[in-house]
Structure formats: structure tokens, C-alpha cells
Amino acid sequence: MIPVLSALVPVFNEKENLPGFKKELTGVLAGMKLPFEIIWIDDGSSDGSFGELVKFSSGQEQRILRLSKNYGQTAALAAGIAASRGEWIVAIDADGQNDPEDIPRLFAAAAAGVDVVSGWRKNRQDDFFSRILPSRAANYIISAVTGVKLHDFGCTLKIYRAAMLKTVDLYGEMHRFLPAILGYAGATVTELAVNHRPRRAGKSKYGIARTFKVVLDLFTVKFMGDFITKPIYLFGGLSLAMIAAAGLMAGWTLYNKFFNGIFVKDQPLFLIAIFLGLVAVQFAFMGLIAEVLIRTYHSANRKPPYTVAERVNCT
Predict the structure, then answer these.
(1) Positive or negative: CA dihedral 23, 28, 30, 35
(2) N or C: which end of the chain has fewer CB within 10 A?
(3) What pTM was computed for the model?
């Protein structure tokens, strides 16, 4: 039977949390009375998580992927998305901090006509200074830059319309930007407050350094969202702005020369105008090269950023 809902669970060194979480998640999905599948993606765990997953792989609704090494959560989700068969895809962490009981509410909101329903950890059970405060700053910046207003981009618990999600190529650390990326593609995005629980066992895989990665990735998301089909608009716009600035500086230099008797060699603005003019030419050519590359990008065959080393119940 083709599933309606595919649950993707990235796993990295969560052996202690898996038995209880698997029972809880399976019980909630079974209670929804619709065909489902759970795809567990072992992202190169070194603590025996894969062996724990194999123990409860009986039943066609339990499917397992083991990646050949630790690629990161984005690649793990990309592997799960590629293997999923459901009309809807829900992603949830394996550490037990996301509450599976929230999935029916997210699904009901999505089924009402929304493409993406994002979880909001309103009462987050993490350290304030190392996790919550940097997350709030990052969420504010992402919302301001992308125009998709969410309180919690970093919450893994989200549900997506599979037809839209499968059109996205995920690379690097882009999983947290999925609502913004799909928003650029025209998806309707909403947010629901969800329960967030303290970690039961194991250690968090994230630190404050992730905030800096978010800021860097945001540049890519903004470019991919606004300029991926028209990079000449970005580079050409920068080129025109610099040409205009160079023209004003050159004009001011000539004004001082003819009306104030200041020689050109005594005016540093003239050198800056020349520099800006040269940079403007470079930006113009970068835009043209980017246009050619974008056309190549859209026509080329691209392989996924992961290698699946083993499959269980993935027919």
C-alpha cells in the first residue's frame, strides 16, 4: 500500500533514545489511521545506532538507510526524501525532544491546504545562552532576509507536501532553510507551536558555532531564491551602482580642477573612481559568466550529495 505520510528520522549516535522513541512515534502514526512509513536514516553513527535500528526493522512501514559516513543532517534528510513514497513528508529528530504527538496537528493543518507547516518550539528546553539566544538572532535575520516570517527555522519537526519538497536540491546545511526555499518557489508556509522536551539521553550535536554557518548559508539561500534564474540582475546592478559612484567621483574631481584649481593628482577621489570603474567592469562580466553557469546548472545531471551504503526494506 502506498503511504500517505512518510516520516523521516535522521539518526546520529542516538542508540539510547531509539527504542523508546520508535515505540512512541510508531504508536502515534498508527493512531492516525492512514498508511504511513518511517524512514530511519543512520547518518554514519559510531555508537551502534544502526544495529539498534535493525532490531525493529520488521514490517514494511519501517525502512532504514545507512549512509557510508557522517554527511550531516541535510544530506540525511535528502536521502530520506529521495526514498520516501508518501504524499506528505514529516521530519522529526530522533533524540526525543520533538514530540510525536504534535504530528497529527501538523498534518491536519497541512491537509487543510498548506504546503509547509513548521513547528515552533515556543517553550524550548535548551540552554538559553548557547542555544536559544543564538537561535532567536538567526531566526530574526532569516525572516528579515527571506521574507518568510517564522519564529523557529531550526525546528526539525515540519511537514511538507512531497510534490514540492522533492523538487528541491539540498546541499551543505540547507535543511533549516527549507521553508524559505519552498516559499521562494510559491509554497504556502505556516507555523504551529509544538511541544519541546528535555533531552532524555546522549548529547546535543549542535553548538554555538552553528550560528555562524547559518549566516553564511543565508547568503546562498538569498541568492538562490532571488537571483538563481537571473544572476545578471545582481551583478549587473552592482556594476551599475559602481559606475554611477565612479561617475560622481570623477565629476567632482573635474569640478575641483576647473573651478577650484585643484589638480587631479591631488585628489584621491579620482583614483577611487578608476578603481570602482574597473570593479564595475569585473562585476558585469561575472554576471555574464553566472548567466552561462546557471543555464548549465539547470541542464546538467546532478548526483545527490550522499552515498547510501546499505538499505533495509527499501524495495
Answers:
(1) negative
(2) C
(3) 0.80
